[in-house]
Structure to design on (577 residues):
């Protein structure tokens, strides 16, 4: 297990200077750069303006023409949760705006690969589409655009991924990360870009007198449950703009105004919509939605989010839940195999290369990204897990660590060894690629060198951030409730963590696989508190006497009774700082 350094923000030994949950929140927001607590979740009226998105006018012009002339619009989304929510939002939103011929297509991870391809364009033409609207993809689809022009199809791209050296020749491109775009929030998820497009469309249609008694103007804010889910699921930075979208969506979920599919997914996950948080979306709903794209086809997930029939939504959510259980079983087997490969790589007991590339002949393409993430967490190395993509090609999914831009590292390899990679794309923290036949070993060597260029031979010691020691009088259910709804918490606006020394009263292993650590602990001079560390079962021998815990406050609900619980993220010796 990689050593972890606990870093307090700010670096101080004294407990947090707060005696009441409201005072605590002010301190925690200040730790995250907000001097005014009201800025934690501002209203919809303060969103960045639609007009700031470059390419929006051209996209609106083409789609307004399609809506007015009743042309067929085909939404082509990605096969992850961002793509699924974005596709459902696009279909629902266009229909809300009066489009009469709207359908969707999600490329197969296994037969089509990622994004808009010439084959997908040909399928769209075969379905009678006049306009293709991409969601969460398209910024790198040069060959597909050329094929669309040959077939006489228009393509409007909505995406948020980083572009390459040249943009595809689409009819319009809306992407906050394209050159020349001055949109202030570069972290919009794919579903967020779609929401902005729909808002711009509504504005143009309103100006032209499109809406009336027979065609009421829709309230697009009622679709923010989908925006919130996709934004959280894609783990984009929760900057000010994204916090607005997520918080406003969660408020609608808690008020019972979410679509039937979102409510059904919360139900099968055992989460209460009235108490829904970003964590519920990220850890419980998103994995079930993603399971469809990982193991079969994401069409099931999109249909679940499109139906207004609660019974049908629940039936599909149950299918997604079953797929997620299957995904977890596959992931477990792959993770064991990957760790066995890592054991073989260890040279003198504990040294590993600065970057990891692993391949299993029987690994599943749809789960390789999750395995890469688990190994990245365990060994603190940027990791790419490859699975067989057929015809000798390998498809990899990678996850990075802080300080290493994964897409740039892969681009570094591609520029020096253009014969290795067939396709790649992604972000700083996650990326995907396809290797040509016989290229795994030379790619592995080149990738390790690319990591060395950015990080050196040994990656920096991982850190776990703590807001400090929580005063004993704030270790209460009231504080846990206040923190639960004070977010939304997420990437770059992290959920509050605290650290302190506790006396272990009891420690035992729980869970079907006995991987989780159940504790009863006591703070200095305080009462015993229940705590659980998911995935920390291997630390049970260290859970004796005085230990330092890095933890979050949680509300444990059991048989209608609520109590305080600590969620333990790290268990260390008392002196480890």
């Amino acid at each position: 297990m990689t050593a972890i350094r606990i870093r307090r923000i700010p670096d101080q030994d004294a407990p947090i200077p707060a005696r009441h949950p409201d005072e605590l929140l002010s301190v925690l927001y200040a730790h995250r750069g907000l001097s005014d607590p009201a800025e934690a979740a501002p209203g919809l009226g303060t969103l960045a303006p639609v007009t700031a998105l470059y390419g929006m006018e051209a996209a609106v012009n083409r789609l307004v023409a399609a809506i007015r002339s009743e042309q067929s619009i085909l939404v082509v989304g990605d096969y992850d949760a961002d793509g699924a929510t974005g596709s459902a939002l696009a279909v629902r939103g266009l229909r809300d705006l009066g489009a009469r011929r709207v359908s969707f297509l999600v490329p197969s991870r296994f037969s089509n690969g990622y994004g808009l391809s010439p084959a997908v364009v040909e399928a769209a033409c075969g379905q009678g589409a006049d306009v293709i609207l991409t969601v969460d993809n398209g910024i790198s689809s040069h060959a597909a655009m050329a094929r669309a022009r040959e077939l006489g199809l228009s393509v409007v791209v909505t995406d948020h991924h980083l572009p390459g050296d040249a943009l595809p020749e689409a009819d319009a491109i809306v992407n906050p990360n394209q050159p020349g775009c001055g949109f202030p929030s570069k972290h919009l998820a794919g579903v967020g870009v779609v929401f902005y497009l729909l808002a711009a469309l509504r504005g143009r249609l309103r100006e032209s007198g499109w809406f009336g008694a027979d065609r009421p103007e829709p309230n697009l804010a009622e679709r923010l449950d989908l925006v919130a889910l996709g934004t959280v699921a894609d783990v984009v930075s929760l900057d000010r703009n994204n916090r607005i979208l997520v918080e406003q969506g969660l408020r609608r979920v808690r008020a019972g105004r979410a679509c039937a599919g979102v409510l059904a997914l919360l139900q099968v996950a055992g989460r209460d919509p009235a108490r829904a948080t970003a964590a519920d979306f990220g850890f419980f709903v998103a994995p079930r939605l993603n399971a469809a794209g990982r193991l079969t086809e994401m069409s099931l997930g999109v249909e679940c989010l499109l139906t207004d029939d609660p019974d049908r939504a629940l039936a599909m959510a149950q299918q997604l839940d079953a797929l997620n259980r299957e995904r977890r079983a596959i992931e477990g087997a792959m993770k064991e195999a990957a760790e066995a490969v890592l054991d073989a790589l260890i040279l003198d007991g504990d040294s590993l290369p600065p970057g990891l590339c692993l391949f299993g002949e029987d690994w599943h393409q749809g789960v390789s990204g999750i395995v890469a993430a688990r190994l990245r967490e365990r060994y603190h190395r940027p990791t790419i897990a490859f699975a067989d993509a057929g015809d000798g090609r390998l498809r990899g999914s990678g996850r990075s660590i802080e300080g290493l831009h994964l897409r740039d590292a892969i681009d570094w390899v591609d520029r020096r060894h253009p014969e290795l990679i067939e396709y790649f794309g992604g972000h700083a923290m996650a990326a995907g690629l396809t290797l040509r036949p016989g290229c795994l070993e030379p790619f592995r060597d080149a990738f390790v060198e690319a990591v060395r260029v950015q990080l050196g031979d040994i990656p920096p010691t991982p850190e776990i951030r703590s807001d400090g020691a929580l005063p004993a009088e704030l270790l209460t259910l009231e504080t846990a409730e206040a923190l639960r709804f004070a977010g939304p918490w997420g990437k770059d606006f992290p959920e509050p963590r605290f650290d302190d020394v506790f006396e272990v009263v009891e420690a035992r292993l729980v869970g079907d696989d006995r991987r989780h650590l159940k504790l009863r602990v006591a703070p200095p001079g305080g009462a015993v508190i229940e705590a659980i560390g998911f995935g920390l079962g291997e630390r049970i021998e260290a859970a004796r006497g005085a230990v330092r815990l890095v933890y979050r406050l949680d509300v444990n609900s059991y048989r209608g009774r609520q109590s305080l619980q600590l969620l333990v993220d790290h268990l260390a010796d008392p002196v480890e700082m």
User: Anything to note?
Assistant: The chain is about 40% helix and 20% strand. The chain has a mean pLDDT of 90. The radius of gyration is 24 Å.
